[in-house]
Design goal:
23 helices; disordered N terminus; alpha/beta; binds beta-D-glucopyranose; 18% strand
Length: 798
């Protein structure tokens, strides 16, 4: 392998050209040049003491942003081109202070793979497009996700990236959230554990991460101006919990604050969020950066403890310098922010002059991407063992997405991949034939439609993605002909989404052409006693109830990354037994979603101003009236039956659960629950075992049950068993009591429910234990209080 090593000396030279351009002339501290403290050799305190005010302000403000075709106010594109020379496509870079040995560090997106442009340094760049976050979470397998992280981080390292801007771990509050595909789940426990696994994997390479978007950023509509009105309890239990788990389990190098306001204040300007909760209560040791151009007031951001403002403008530097000089910003607060950044710079690959090849092993990583997709897809329906498909079956393949797989979403979560394996190609590789006539018809249609809407340049595409091609209204006689010659039909339905816009209710439902396609194929194939399979290649939850009676089997592939077609074929052919489970509920109707009447909130157009990048900013507000009743917490507590419940997923085998044993009938400091899972079917398989807890209801209302632990078995052969043990601590029993500002486990009877989904019918074993007295698991400071009280959804007391 050819190693291109960019020596530190060259990096320094690079830093000088970029950093000096913005350093205004000020008196340097008195040391002679040769006695200047150096980062890594001297203490950070000594280095900070040697920095001028301007150097400090330049360090806490990034060195700009470069996107071809975009012109950002207040930025010098010559410098930015320099930044791109190290990592073409990097999303941002900090400034260095060469005279003190501080190098600039490079950050790039994003959750689904390393963000690189395809050209730079005279060559072509690609990265692995991993299965999107929602699919990875459906694996419920932290060891697998860690492996993805290790490979993902190695690509970042080989490209000379210091920090990956991901993972994204906002909660799926509403199925229309435009960036849900980047995020994991409606549940904070699975969110936090999957995020921690990815962070640990990436960071094992000496590459940092930025968990984002902190916090309560659950929509794209008015994303830079929306005020999220939310209770302290819902914040603590639902919207912050995943971040807390990820911080405590994995210590990400950085956290990215979100664009929105929480209860009236921008997240990046809230000392209670950024310093009290994140740094003090949770013990976060890294630094906090803003989202790109996030927040408004750089001085308030500095005071809040938001160490770094990204991507950084000259105006922010000036405001910080002026505020220190004018006495509005204590220089000690600035020093603390500088120190946080320097502590991470010290760990960075750039500082350590790590070698990088610019040639990650994409072939090896493609196999890991395929395996991750294999282990995560969710089999929703499989009547009369429709799947797996018999070897050498002749398949009729319908739907534009079957020939044009959606590997991942758009925006900063998009990945520049070398190829995408379509479902048609995957089936072909698996030896499952598909008909040439359909292949030709669909590809001609796709080419024709693409020609009508040619893709725009990177920036325009980012801001305003080309709309997806509409489903092909395939002629009924073509379907009839296929029903005569093929053994089985597969229809792929696709949905994409991305940064900047939420999906519409109409996109939640299938369009008329799509429903017609499914109905026509089902009529023709069922008339010949042949089966119909639907594959969902989607970015977010869609309706299933209006059409699924026509399908004999439904496989949820989400957006499966660059090897997607091969992975879907692995499941359809039975090479892999599906073991993914839903990490987010599929409701019967959109209106069943608890946040439906409060999404995406209300706008105040009369108060519109000019916001980020000169775009119009409309003040908006969204009230989380559903409180803690998000996802299954709502459906189960309020008796609303979903189409497919949280935690659900089928296998080609069956599992038996036995011998649930608690370590004690009463809770003292901890309690353990063990259960034996046996493969009772005919093929090897893995089971996701879920532990839900029902807590006593006294002072606070509680969800009917909450996921408190989960694990995936190893691959069990038919007849083989595995015993799993889960341990619960007081924190696992506790709810956030707002009046006491504390996590309290209420005294009373708790029910442990272990099963294969959150639906009661899938709960296989239950046991109870008693807690004699309330336990205060954690006492916190009073923070994040809504400005005006509002009414939250509560179950009616029985
Ligand atoms: C996105 C972030 C991303 C950043 C840098 C922002 O628009 O919200 O998720 O990391 O851009 O590309």
């Amino acid at each position: 392998m050819r190693i291109i090593c960019l020596p530190f000396a060259r990096l320094r030279a690079w830093a000088i050209t970029t950093a000096t351009a913005v350093t205004t002339a000020t008196a340097m501290p008195a040391q002679a040049q040769n006695t200047l403290p150096q980062l890594g050799k001297n203490s950070t305190a000594e280095v900070i003491a040697a920095m001028t005010l301007e150097e400090k302000a330049n360090l806490v403000v990034g060195n700009g942003f470069y996107i071809p075709g975009a012109n950002f106010p207040g930025m010098n594109s010559a410098q930015l081109n320099e930044a791109q020379k190290k990592v073409p496509g990097a999303s941002g870079v900090t400034r260095g202070v060469p005279r003190l040995g501080i190098p600039p560090i490079v950050v790039t997106d994003g959750p689904a793979g390393v963000h690189v442009f395809n050209t730079g340094k005279g060559r072509v760049y690609y990265a692995t497009a991993w299965p999107v976050g929602t699919l990875l979470a459906s694996s419920w397998d932290t060891a697998l996700v860690r492996r993805v992280g290790v490979a993902f981080g190695s690509e970042a390292k080989e490209y000379g990236v210091d920090i990956i801007l991901g993972p994204g771990l906002n909660i799926h509050r509403n199925p229309l959230g435009g960036r849900n595909f980047e995020y994991y789940s409606e549940d904070p426990l699975i969110t936090g554990n999957i995020a921690a696994a990815l962070v640990n994997g990436i960071q094992s390479n000496g590459v940092g991460t930025s968990i984002k978007h902190f916090a309560a950023n659950n929509q794209e509509t008015d994303r830079n101006s929306v005020n999220t009105v939310v209770s302290e309890r819902a914040l603590r239990e639902i919207y912050l919990k995943g971040f807390e788990i990820a911080v405590k389990q994995a210590q990400p190098w950085t956290v990215m604050t979100s664009y929105n306001l929480i209860n009236g204040v921008y997240t990046s300007e809230r000392p209670d969020l950024v310093t009290t909760i994140l740094k003090n209560e949770w013990g976060f040791k890294g630094f906090v950066m803003t989202d790109w151009f996030g927040g408004k007031d750089p001085v308030a951001q500095m005071k809040a403890g938001n160490n770094l403002l990204m991507p950084g403008t000259a105006d922010q530097v000036k405001k910080i310098v002026d505020a220190v000089k004018g006495g509005q910003l204590d220089e000690k607060a600035l020093d603390r922010n500088v120190e946080g950044i320097l502590n991470i710079v010290l760990q960075s690959g750039t500082f350590k002059a790590d070698k990088y090849s610019d040639q990650p092993d994409l072939t090896k990583d493609a196999q890991i991407a395929r395996e991750a997709a294999d282990e995560s897809m969710v089999l929703l329906k499989n009547n009369n063992n429709t799947l797996p498909i018999a070897a050498n079956s002749h398949i009729a393949l319908f739907g534009i997405n079957a020939f044009n797989l959606i590997a991942g979403g758009t925006g900063s979560g998009d990945v520049n991949r070398l190829y995408t394996v379509s479902l048609a190609e995957g089936l072909f590789h698996a030896g499952l034939m598909e008909d040439g006539a359909l292949y030709t018809a669909y590809n001609e249609y796709i080419a024709q439609e693409n020609a009508k809407h040619p893709k725009k340049g990177f920036f325009e595409e980012f801001m305003n993605p080309t709309p997806p091609i509409q489903e092909y209204p395939i002629a009924p006689d073509m379907i009839t002909r296929q029903a005569a010659i093929a053994d089985i039909a597969i229809i792929s339905i696709g949905r994409n989404s991305g940064e900047g816009t939420d999906r519409k209710v109409s996109e939640f439902y299938l369009g008329e052409t799509e429903k017609q396609l499914i109905a026509n194929v089902a009529a023709a194939f069922h008339a010949k006693n042949k089966k119909v399979i639907v594959v969902l290649n989607i970015a977010g939850v869609t309706d299933v109830t209006q059409w699924e009676d026509n399908a004999d089997a439904v496989l949820l592939a989400w957006q499966p990354g660059l090897e997607g077609g091969n992975a879907i074929a692995d499941i359809l052919s039975g090479k892999v037994n599906p073991s993914g489970k839903l990490a987010t509920t599929f409701p019967v109707h959109y209106d069943d979603v608890p946040s439906a009447k409060n999404f995406p909130g209300k706008e105040f157009p009369e108060k519109a101003t000019t916001g980020m990048l000169g775009m119009k900013a409309i003040p908006a507000e969204v009230t989380y009236e559903e409180g803690i009743y998000v996802g299954y917490r709502y459906y189960n507590t309020f008796g609303v039956k979903p189409a497919y419940p949280f935690g659900y997923g089928l296998s080609y085998t069956t599992f038996g659960y036995s011998d649930l044993k608690l370590s004690s009938p009463t809770f003292t400091n901890t309690i353990s629950a063990s259960i034996t899972v046996t493969n009772t079917g005919k093929v090897a398989g893995k089971e996701v075992v879920q532990l839900y807890l029902t807590a006593p209801v006294h002072k606070l209302d509680k969800p009917a049950e909450e996921l408190r632990a989960f694990a995936k078995t190893s691959l069990l052969k038919p007849g083989e068993s595995q015993t799993l043990t889960f341990t619960l601590t007081p924190a696992d029993l506790a709810s956030y009591n707002t009046t006491a500002s504390a996590w309290i486990a209420d005294a009373g009877k708790y029910t442990v429910k272990i099963g294969a989904s959150s639906d009661d019918i899938d709960i296989k074993q239950t046991a109870t234990f008693n807690l004699a007295k309330d336990i205060v698991a954690e006492k916190d400071e009073k923070t994040l209080t809504p400005q005006t009280p509002f009414t939250e959804l509560k179950p009616v007391k029985k």
